[in-house]
Amino acid sequence: MHRGKGMKFVGDSRVSAVRKPNIPKDYSEYPGKTEAFWPNFLLKEWMVGAVFLVGYLCLTVAHPSPLERIADPTDTGYIPLPDWYFLFLYQLLKYTYASGPYNTIGALVMPGLAFGGLLLAPFLDRSPHRRPSKRPLATGFMLLGLASIIYLTWFSVATHDWEKAKEQGKIVAKAEIDTKDPGYAVYQKQSCIGCHGKELTGGAGPSLVGTGLKPEEIAKIAKEGKGAMPPNAYKGNDEDLKKLTEFISKLKAE
């Protein structure tokens, strides 16, 4: 402002003199760095997605999901196995300090600390660097967690009894069980259900349906044992044993 000559305005370069509509810049300003969303970018996304979808469908056809028999709550010999992404927790619960009286520690405390650490990661390491060597705290925790998950998953797979799991989950033939038969009462009394299941279709022990064995052959196995069945597993008298063996020999697969 100058005295006697009125008032002069000085323009601010930070304020645009001419307002322009909110139009994105032309793609030609960024050669080789961008492309139109439709149809170029979206078409590429669809093509990549289709390739992965077809590959996944081929994998499911080539290796179908294994089906097991219907769950039997009376089968105390069944060994459950979770999906592969929970195997590390399954293995963790096998250790003394994370199972039994310390089951809460293995099931809640340890996973809670691990996932809590992920939530606190932005506050524990606020370094602006992107190189792993410049962020030892975050890198160390990440490598420790990754190594723990890989090791526990591998060890769980390596030590699992896959042959027994295959047998216990196998779909087996069923038979119509006459629960009023005297032989079935002996079957329950001798606690055979724990190994052979309520429907006699097997569990920790083999299926007793459609064995094709005669009563005397079944009695011999009950007294002398066979395979995983120990000798003298039957503790009753001969009269009850006869009822039991006749009952089992009559079971035919449907």
From TrEMBL:
Protein name in UniProt: Menaquinol:cytochrome c reductase cytochrome c subunit
Binding site for heme c: 192, 195-196
One Gene Ontology CC term in the entry: membrane
InterPro entries: Cyt_b/b6_C (IPR005798), Cyt_b/b6_C_sf (IPR036150), Cyt_c-like_dom (IPR009056), Cyt_c-like_dom_sf (IPR036909), Cytb/b6-like_sf (IPR027387), Cytochrome_c550/c551-like (IPR051811), MenaQ_cyt_c_Rdtase_cyt_b/c-su (IPR012049)
Family assignment from sequence similarity: Belongs to the cytochrome b family.
Organism: Peribacillus deserti
Gene3D superfamilies: Cytochrome Bc1 Complex, Chain C, Cytochrome c-like domain
Keyword terms: Electron transport, Heme, Iron, Membrane, Metal-binding, Transmembrane, Transmembrane helix, Transport
Principal localisation: membrane
Pfam family name, one: Cytochrome_CBB3
Membrane topology reported for the UniProt record: Multi-pass membrane protein
Cellular location(s): Membrane
